[in-house]
Amino acid sequence: MNTTQKLPEPPVFELNKSIEDTIQEMIKAKEDDPSLFIPSSFLENYNSKEMNCFVKSTMDYCSALHRMEKTHGNRDQRIMWSTTDDCFKIRKLASKMAKNYGKLMINLINQRKSSKDEQNFFETLIYYVAKVMQPMFEKEQVKWLEDELNRLFRSTAFNISRRNHVEFERARRFPVIKVQKKNLDSIVDNIIIRNSVPRDRLRVRINESVEIKPGYVKLSAFKALSARSPMISLILPSPSDRVRAFEQ
Question: Average pLDDT for residues 191-210, to the nearest whole number?
Fold first, then answer.
């Protein structure tokens, strides 16, 4: 007699349910902490046709990219993969996502919102999209999702999420270098401890398929000065963006 029990199927992701759950969670957080700020323009537009199209296309892009990264985990495979139909599919999904983002921004501009309100809308949007999409991913994959969304909106140089994850991983590997108190003595001691650890050991490398990510620019001091967000580069590519896309 076969006593093997069938594992339960993972819950099916429902986009509309996740959107409503995320909004309710944001409103409750605001009620619990009045210092939190949710721009009125966001609450007015979160369920608009433009927002729904943008969230759906972002979901399609991120899920496809993550699935392909898992399938082609080896770096040499990824280099070969950059010439396949899979790479073309990622670029097509990214282009659709960027167009929907452009439509969302035009809709916001047509509502004649202030520049400050538009900035707050932008910051809230990154958080919102990440929260809506989190149920699609395993817990350990959420960092990847946050890093990619921040890269798309802010560029490699200003990817706050990735920087925080790298610092967290560095502190996890070398707890002794973490500053506990923000005072002059502890900071000086921390610098001394950091210098005692070989620099190559302090570097934290997170593998990612940079060969296929649209608008990816390797980080350097020079490139950081002229960095553009991949989302903007996809909508309004500069001459250098066009050359980079052709080379890929």
Answer: 58
User: Cα–chain-centroid distance for residue 237?
Assistant: 20
Nearest to 63 by CA among 149, 153, 136: 136
Q: Provide the strand spans (E) within 10-90.
A: none
Domain positions in the chain: 15-247
pTM: 0.74
More confident residue, 182 or 162: 162
Handedness of CA 101, 102, 104, 108 (dihedral sign): positive
pLDDT tens for residues 166-191? 676 666 666 655 555 555 566 666 66
Rounded CA gap, 88 and 212, in Å? 9
| Amino acid sitting at position 235 | I
Mean confidence (pLDDT) of the chain: 77
Residue 160, number of CB atoms within 10 A of its CB: 12
Answer for the pair 212, 83: CB distance below 8 angstroms, yes or no. no
